[in-house]
Amino acid sequence: MKNTITPKKHERVNINRVEIYYEVYGKGEPLILLHGYTQSSIAWLEYVKEYSDNFEVYLIDLRGHGKSSKFEYQFSVRAASEDVLTLMKHLNIDKVKGIGLSFGGDVLLELSSMNPELVESMVIIGANGNWDSQDFPSMLSTFNYDNIEKFQWIRDYHTGGEEQIKGILDQLANYKIKLTDEELKRIKAKTLLILGDKAEQIPIDSVVKLHQTLDDSQLWIVPNTGHYAHDGDNKTEFLRLSKAFLLNTLK
């Protein structure tokens, strides 16, 4: 998680009754990197250098996470998406590219449906725009604050202490997104969908359906890989493909 470059800008801004933290690196077209649920923008730090020669990279702590405000309201993907939309307006950014992991991928899908003109192209990892944590009771019974000692890595991502971490884990029970085909059809962004074939909570057929529904999408099913299909042994190929896709040079 160690960062090798320094942001040229970082701040917390008041947006939609919460404070949202972001950092900016590099130069070029705006590119937002959105983390997964229980993570923070720290999860993308080791990727920033690879993108910053071609893009002005924005790392964003989604509401409740990282250095953004702790949860005070019931969680919704829609609200997190509205935060990103408002932040883009605050920064006078009217066209953006994006990469989103899991929760971050759902936010990108929701955002590009809400405002089709904003998102030009995006890479979605381990998300399908149709997911409800209540469908996974065994996950909820395990992945909670009572078992925090099993998930020490969560503490690496957050600065708000145990209250913040407990709030994030408690709010997981409220995670729900269900974009209709009509809402998905509004999306104009060119989209690269990525899923590990062993990702336990995102069925492959749901991402295939999303691929078929979106007007302009490509699909990469990564073999012998779980939820973090962009990491580990796949990181080099992910960086190559994602950069080529976002730069419109993918063959």
From TrEMBL:
Every AB hydrolase-1 domain range: 30-153
Transmembrane regions listed in the UniProt entry: none
Pfam families: Abhydrolase_1
SUPFAM superfamilies attached to this UniProt entry: alpha/beta-Hydrolases
Entries under InterPro entries matching the protein: AB_hydrolase_1, AB_hydrolase_fold, AB_hydrolase_sf
Entry superkingdom: Bacteria
PANTHER family named in the record: MONOACYLGLYCEROL LIPASE
Protein name: Pimeloyl-ACP methyl ester carboxylesterase
Organism: Tenacibaculum caenipelagi
